[in-house]
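>> Question from a student workshop board

For tomorrow's exercise we were told to take the sequence and the ligand below, predict the bound structure, and bring the output to class. My setup keeps failing. Could a helper post the expected result so I can at least see what it should look like? The ligand is glycyl-adenosine-5'-phosphate.
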Amino acid sequence: MSKNIAGEELMNKIVALCKRRGFIYQNSEIYGGMANTWDYGPMGVELKRNIKDIWWKNFVQERDDVVGLDSAIIMHPETWKASGHLSSFNDALIDCKTCKSRFRADHIIEDALNIDVEGKTEDEMTEIIHENKIKCPVCGSIDWTDARLFNLMFKTFQGVVEDSSSVVYLRPETAQGIFVNFKNIVDTTRVSLPFGIAQIGKAFRNEITPGNFIFRVREFEQMELEFFVKPGEDEEWFDYWRNYPMEWLINLGLSKDNLKYYDHPVEKLAHYSKGTTDILYKFPFGWEELWGIANRTDFDLNAHIERSGKKLTVFDHEKGEHIVPYVVEPSVGVDRLVLAFLVEAYTEDIVDGAERVYLNLKPELAPVKAAVFPLTKKEQLVEIARDIYNRLKTLFNTEYDDSGSIGKRYRRQDEIGTPYCITVDFDTIDDRKVTIRDRNTLEQDRIDIEKVRDYLLERI
Ligand code: GAP
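>> Workshop helper replied:
Here is what the output should look like for this input. Compare the format with yours to find the bug.
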């Protein structure tokens, strides 16, 4: 029987396990730490890579209609004028004059009055906060500055001269790298509509209120697909790309009960979107966006056509003419996926009267697929175990462990979600068989050493 843990208690346990077992560390910890910035340790980097590899396999490699891209983080500044990010990628922030805390004005209003202020200007938000005498959540005073707009893009300078002509931005989404390469891909590959361009890469947003561990951070990784279609076929493809990620998440172990769709009301759509649906996940701190699917129409390509003067079109064989396609975009943050899979996987149960913590990750996501233990440090057992380990590690991530009791070694692997542990015992010397223990069921199979490889390959 597993224990029911939720909310803040669950988040605290996940954060502690991530630190303890090398999944996620606070950034620059030796200098006191960078607030809300996180580094992925040896286990975290494996989990993250597995997520990215599976996404790439299912969204690019296995599909005939998607190609990949890896574009630069710092792009021509004109990009952000065309995309609308320089003028519209803003949040309204407000400061408490007493304690100097800074907040997003919409969050302050939504939390205090439980009303939605999407679409309101910064002046309207200032008025609501002042009129309703909303208190500062930190110090309780009612002494606010006016709300003012704050662009979320990180600004820096390229080259040695720090003047306005050398200002550049860290990309706030990977998507624009795809749009500015649209012509290159159409000209140099054999794509024809409908087709997608996919990219995994870092994005940066100077979020006013980052938080909830790796949920909202300023530097994160996105996996984005821009799927170009004929205008008129966009709604059909929008439905398709609404369903595909949902099935992907469920196949990888997220429970249907913890996932739901949120369709954005038409009046609240982003400037580029004709329709947006979020896939929400039930995080310990509430239902929050995991994956956004948007029908971006021809907004981006037209904006880049206008600003660059280049022809960003593709030939429509049916019409016999060049057209500007529509685009449907499923976009997800890798860090949010890492958190969702950890939340879903974290389990506590009782085994032989003792508490155990394990990560119930699907084997394809698990950082380590198998661990090999000699029962004792007796030379013959170590030799056989090392030999099995050396053969398996060329196929997938495997660990060798001969320190401490077998029970302790199992617990160490359970905590990082290793699905299979292989023990070499004294009988192995004569029968050339080992015991393979299943992380979830704790059942043990005794099988020939020569069959271990296939046994594992069938299951991971
Ligand atoms: N190109 C579209 C786009 O960027 P978005 O809804 O702003 O749309 C897409 O972001 C996804 O990126 C989100 O669903 C989320 O998973 C992730 N994401 C956005 N901001 C994030 C942040 N500050 N920290 C972590 N992940 C974030």
